[in-house]
Amino acid sequence: MAEIIGRRKEIKELQDCYQSKRSEFIVVYGRRRVGKTYLVNNVFEDRLAFQHTGLSPFELKDEVLSQSQLTNFYSSLKRYGYKGNDKPDDWLSAFDALISLLSSQPKDKPQVVFIDEIAWMDTPRSGFITAFEHFWNGWGANRGNLKLVVCSSAASWVMDNIINNRGGLFDRTTREIHLSPFTLGETSDYLDSIGVTYDHYDVLQTYMAVGGVPYYLSFIQPGMSVAENIDNLFFEKNAKLKNEYKNLFSSQFANPEACKGIIDCLTANKTGCTRAEIMEKGGFSSGGTLSQQIKSLMASDFIMSYVPYKGKKRDMKYKIIDPFILFSTKFAQKTTNDHYWRNNQNSATLNTWRGLAFENVCFSHIPQIKTALGINGVQTEVLPWHSEQKSGGAQTDMIIDRADRIVNICEMKFYNTEFVVDKDYDEKLRNKLDVFLRETKLRKSVLMTLVTTYGLGQSRYSGRFQNVITMDQLFL
């Protein structure tokens, strides 16, 4: 097996499927470019009995696409030894041909069938889902040695048509693997593997721009600074990721403009927006379409939902959590300066963005924060908090409400040195704590917690924080 960075749990699950004594129906889904195909191909390598990838629907019209998908499927069948001479006219015939191919192969070992980008194959009025259901329910599920693996970047399609299917595929999957982007630690390991020797501070800065997406990280060049690499990826002429934001939505969502409209609404408010606020700001109707788009963005790890502290379900908010999305909406295609990042290293704009991006990274590394606090086994609720006061209020980056009757009020600070609490900041902290206790009427102990890059510098006010977590601990 080729080297796979991280993914230990997912690798074990796929290997367990291969060794099991029953037929397995495995769904692997996640955002575009996250490494789904690479994972499956490298776990099973030369043990694939059949592999097929759906055609991208963005270059072909609907009336041509359905037949093109069938032609492409037939080509895959022939490549794996199918002897039939007639191209299937519909998906029922196509899957019957696959059954014929698999039935001709030895039955004394597992047969791995890998269908990649399955959502693209489900063209309008093609009958694909019906035929696919028949293939699994009528033949595959009882085969005993069949290991059916399907992948898709269209996470919402997977959720609606396979995982939450209310028809013939209801409750038929045996394993569901949601492949998320790399953590900071995995990102550091990946960069090391391609010869990029960054310290944790530079890995963190890189992560804040492109996230833990292996495809994006693969373009980071050894021997170049973080600023040079960011210019190279986003701002220079013909930059590799200059148009990726637009392409990402077009290839992943059925209604890309609606999804981008939701992101635009969320970009304007770092604490997120309620559904009603998205409707008002984005001009969406009150129907189910908005809920569908929100669900799609969440399934793709672009946004998260949370109920504000001491709030009710109707107060639920949505906020962006994907670093690449956050970076792109702020900077991509907004300048013609090829050296924008190098020329603005110390600007207020970049420093403000770094602060917000670091908060974002912390929300995607809650397990690491809990480990640093020594509360891995404690049930927690983690969310932002902001005061309801019109004036004189406060807000905090993260609240960790613990089942052991303790609340951590977390402050995130991205600095290139130790963070030092001065008199003004100490006053803000004391006001924040006072407003929080008054508004929430909390009856738990409160621990002020700092999450920062290089730790806490000593001053007469440094005792305000009872816990300090450094960026190194986020890499564990």
Please specify the SSE layout and strand pairing.
Elements: H1 8-19, E1 24-29, H2 36-44, E2 48-53, H3 62-79, H4 91-103, E3 111-116, H5 118-121, H6 128-138, E4 146-152, H7 155-163, E5 175-178, H8 184-193, H9 200-210, H10 214-217, H11 226-235, H12 244-252, H13 256-267, E6 273-274, H14 275-282, H15 288-299, E7 303-306, E8 317-320, H16 323-331, H17 340-343, H18 348-363, H19 366-373, E9 380-386, E10 395-402, E11 406-413, H20 423-440, E12 445-452, E13 467-470, H21 471-474
Helix pairs in contact: 3-4, 4-6, 7-15, 8-9, 9-16, 9-18, 12-13, 13-14, 16-18
Summarize the structure.
With 476 residues, the chain is α/β, with parallel strands linked by helices. The chain is built from 21 helices and 13 strands. The two termini are 25 Å apart.
Protein architecture, described:
Helices cover 44% and strands 16% of the residues. The protein is built from 21 helices and 13 strands. The chain has helices at 8-19, 36-44, 62-79, 91-103, 118-121, 128-138, 155-163, 184-193, 200-210, 214-217, 226-235, 244-252, 256-267, 275-282, 288-299, 323-331, 340-343, 348-363, 366-373, 423-440, 471-474, and strands spanning 24-29, 48-53, 111-116, 146-152, 175-178, 273-274, 303-306, 317-320, 380-386, 395-402, 406-413, 445-452, 467-470. A five-stranded parallel beta sheet has the order 2-3-4-1-5, with helices on both faces. Helix 7 (155-163) crosses helix 15. The radius of gyration is 25 Å and the shape is elongated.
